[in-house]
Amino acid sequence: MTSTEQKSPSAAGSGASATEVFRASRASTDAEGAVAAERVDEVARAVLTAVHDVIREKDVSYPEFQAVKQWLMDVGEGGEWPLFLDVFVEHVVEEVAARTQQGTVGTIQGPYYVPDQQRLPSPAALPTRPDEKGDTLVFSGRVVDLDGNPVAGAELDIWHADGQGYYSGFAPGIPAGNLRAVVVADDAGRFEITTVAPAPYQIPTEGPTGKLIAAAGWHPWRPAHLHLFVQAPGYRRITTQLYFQGGDWLDDDVAEATKPELVLDPQRGDDGRLHSEYDFVLEPA
Ligand code: MBD
Ligand code: FE
After folding, report:
1. CATH 2.60.130.10: does it fit domain 3-33+80-282?
2. For residue range 93-109, what is the model confidence (pLDDT) as tens digits?
3. Which residues line ligand 1 (CB under 6 A)?
4. Which of 3, 33, 240, 265 could cross-link 245 (Cys pair, CB 3.0–4.6 Å)?
């Protein structure tokens, strides 16, 4: 697929809408309180020192400093901070969080989660458009605890891009809730979710994040992926993504969020649909 085809129903604004969603999610959780002054001092100082060191090491000039200032302003005005930070920074925050995690491997959440989707008992079909493009994918498996016992009624909050790489809520013309749902596993912890295979995701090229990527000569692609939160009362919530064996960009994700444990290898069944299984392992909260 060429990048021109990929861009056709312009993704302009998708990075910007992520800012609105992020603000709303912050407003609805007061879990994050103020950060302690000592911690602000420690971390902010370390960040600034790292920046100072780069300026010295790279002989950063006044014109370059002013160009950076302009770009930082553009990212804010374009509403792309959630996009930029989730693409280039979140993977390291997740790496630190993962140090204390057991069970299924996690990875980054990214900017395109929308809460409060339809709850559907398994087996479920994600909401699709009548003319939804792409291969039908039947994704099934079990949710178990660290001892392999089923976690009855576990929730799989799943969201993913469509067969052209666009997310509902963040691209024009896609109905709200498309390819998003909270699927509830059965009493044996089993789930089966019918959806369509997503396409790789391209960072919008027209915004400041895309412009930086182009200016630096990097590529703007993430491999095709499914996003999931898997959760049940009494267990620690998993935030993860699943990728597809042999897919483009699998070994060169712009967001550096792939892990070998998270790669599906769907097989085409006699029914003509793609089938893939995956078991999620939850640790106690
Ligand atoms: C995505 O779809 C995504 O998953 C991440 C992490 C960043 C940008 C777009
Ligand atoms: Fe994504």
Report:
1. yes
2. 999 999 999 999 999 99
3. 83, 86-87, 108, 110-112, 201, 222, 255, 257
4. 265
